[in-house]
């Protein structure tokens, strides 16, 4: 299916992307601003479904890399969005034919729209994760053996670089320190792949899923229905917790926004706090005092989403504030994230948490439901 | 003049380069090893004088970037030497015709010989500084308006990058953090220039000057003459201090070897200590207790050279050890380093020292001889 992304779709798309961004991927307000401006100046963007993509297409993914805490203060320029795409085209010696989103998030689903508008290129209705993750190599194409190199990066000042590394983790390491030096956020593009590779390795229909989520939230509000319940239905997830933000510990270190948020239970039943540990994205949701003996409810790679209590508006990790009344939703990630190789790349252990991966429904990777698991030790 | 650099010239060249390296630029033993191995495997290297260089040549400079303390422990591979040259040739879309040394130093005058041997390219008898300086933009071509970009960099693991930045300081900033992440040293190449630009902006006859210095030291030893006196004559400098190393403070931080060395006076006359402040290279030589009211004798950009007392062997900053008996020589740098623009780039103030630049003969930039100058405050 080929369709056109116009200005009217942007707000829904950005809001839905912020839901799937699980706290990261950038602020949807800023993402929507950028995409609307690019469409107003350069025209609507053609979205192409994976089934319509020619096998010999040259697809690259486009994203913003850096700490979301900085992204909200430093808007990228349209030039810095297209500079790395041009650099990669020159490096490869042939023109890029299609752009794709590396991840889903308030900014990282809308930046590629802006890039596609300015460059006059079609954008795939697909992405590399089906959610957001903090590190560059954490995409399904890595699991399919697709190289992140050559990777282009650029800042808003006009500095541009191209990396060709021995594996996708080295791209992350070098691009991350460059991004920190260049002002804590850069635009990147890479993971050049053919149409056939894109069909195999990307998550399909991502943009329409975002629009469906965003418009679902908006329509529930109009219809005086509960938007959070609508999100749970659309994600096939479950509501995990209702509470009030009582503490947020946050530090922007090594190019990431890392921290924890403590939510105090509101209402009847279990009165334990919920602790959310995040690195750009929410990684672990656990019940208890946040120190030891906590009960881990859900972990990466499944989705942990924080929504404003009444409106269902997604709240990014950098948007968490004392006193917010929120509801936490857990939902399944793309099934490919539960393979052993994927869990080694994005499971709790990679981020320093000595707990087994726990799915959105509370089961472990082996499908066993457990309670009273080990403490979060990171 | 066009001549051939064979294995017999390497030891003298590396030793002489370490003298002009003023403590930095890498260890001459390691530099000589690399160059000899490359010549043995790939043949001798043609050295080309600036007067023989065609106007339409494509010259690039080659160097190792990083902390010398790490360079002595991590030898570059021949592949990592040629990877950035190939990347720049591909980026520019035309073949590099000549290599040049970015700076003079035990490794940074011999690495380009190794690169020239492997690539089968001629090497200019010239360099970008006439000495060594710690940061990438600190070359005379920067003062001539030549861009360091595109700059190629590569590590021994096979990771390669190309930077295109808005000015030469941004190349330094981004390449430096990449170098630190890639193991604290990388091979770099950049400053692409025409033959005409090379003739205007480079220091001429550098390699023959190094060989003359190195062989002068060796011949003085054979002839039972004083090698240090010979170095002073060849550099047109003066002997500044004779003493014993009694303290070395050294830290490898942010990709540099920074520190101070204290030398205790030996012999008659002034019994004050000499303090050498360095960042890879010696920057300031001052008499006193190293705290306040010191008398600054010589500063960057002129040359401060530490030689072993009897043999005249140059000692790099990472080679300084307690108890070494040494002599310190001061000598003039290329006159272009004394322009106001140059002093802003490489003078004491740039490195955080609130003192006027002091030439090798004790005069200030205005030619005034002074004593009792302000304290070194950095």
Structural overview:
2 copies of one chain form a homodimer. The first copy, chain A, has 378 residues and is α+β, with helices and mostly antiparallel strands. The first copy, chain A, has 2 domains: 2-206, CV3147-like fold (3-Layer(aba) Sandwich), CATH 3.40.1610; 226-351, CV3147-like (Beta Barrel), CATH 2.40.390. The first copy, chain A, contains 11 helices and 16 strands. Chain A has helices spanning 7-20, 28-42, 68-71, 78-92, 111-119, 140-143, 168-181, 195-201, 206-222, 227-235, 340-346, and strands at 2-5, 45-48, 58-66, 98-101, 123-127, 151-154, 160-164, 185-194, 203-204, 238-253, 256-265, 274-279, 281-287, 295-299, 303-308, 325-331. In chain A, a hairpin with an 8-residue loop joins strand 11 (256-265) and strand 12 (274-279). The longest helix of chain A has 17 residues, at 206-222. The A-B interface holds A 87, 90-91, 157-166, 170, 173-174, 176-178, 180-182 and B 87, 90-91, 157-166, 170, 173-174, 176-178, 180-182.
């Amino acid at each position: 299916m080929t369709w056109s992304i116009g200005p009217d779709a942007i707000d829904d798309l950005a809001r839905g992307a912020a839901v799937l961004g699980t706290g990261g991927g950038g602020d949807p307000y800023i993402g929507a601003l950028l995409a609307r401006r690019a469409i107003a100046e350069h025209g609507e963007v053609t979205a192409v479904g994976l089934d319509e993509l020619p096998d010999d297409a040259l697809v690259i993914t486009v994203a913003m890399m850096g700490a979301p805490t900085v992204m909200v203060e430093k808007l990228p320029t349209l030039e810095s969005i297209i500079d790395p795409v041009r650099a990669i085209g020159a490096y490869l010696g042939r023109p890029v034919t299609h752009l794709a989103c590396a991840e889903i998030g308030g900014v990282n689903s809308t930046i590629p729209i802006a890039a596609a508008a300015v460059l006059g290129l079609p954008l795939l209705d697909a992405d590399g994760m089906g959610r957001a993750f903090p590190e560059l190599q954490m995409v399904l194409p890595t699991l399919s053996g697709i190289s992140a190199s050559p990777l282009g990066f650029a800042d808003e000042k006009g500095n541009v670089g191209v990396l060709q590394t021995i594996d996708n983790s080295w791209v992350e390491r070098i691009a991350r320190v460059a991004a920190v030096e260049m002002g804590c956020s850069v635009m990147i593009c890479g993971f050049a792949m053919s149409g056939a590779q894109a069909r195999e390795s990307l998550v399909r229909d991502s943009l329409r899923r975002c629009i469906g989520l965003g418009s679902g939230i908006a329509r529930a509000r109009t219809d005086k229905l509960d938007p959070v319940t609508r999100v749970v239905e659309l994600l096939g997830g479950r509501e995990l917790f209702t509470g009030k933000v009582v503490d947020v510990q946050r530090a922007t270190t090594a190019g990431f926004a890392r921290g924890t948020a403590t939510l105090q239970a509101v209402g009847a039943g279990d009165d334990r706090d919920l602790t959310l540990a995040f690195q750009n994205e929410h990684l672990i949701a656990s019940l208890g005092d946040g120190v030891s003996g906590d009960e881990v409810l859900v972990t990466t790679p499944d989705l942990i989403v924080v929504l404003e209590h009444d409106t269902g508006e997604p709240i990014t990790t950098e948007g968490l504030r004392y006193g917010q009344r929120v509801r936490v939703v857990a939902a399944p990630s793309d099934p490919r994230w539960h393979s052993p190789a994927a869990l080694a790349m994005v499971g709790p252990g990679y981020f320093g948490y000595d707990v087994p991966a726990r799915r959105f429904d509370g089961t472990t990777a082996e499908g066993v439901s457990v309670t009273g698991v080990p403490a979060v030790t990171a």
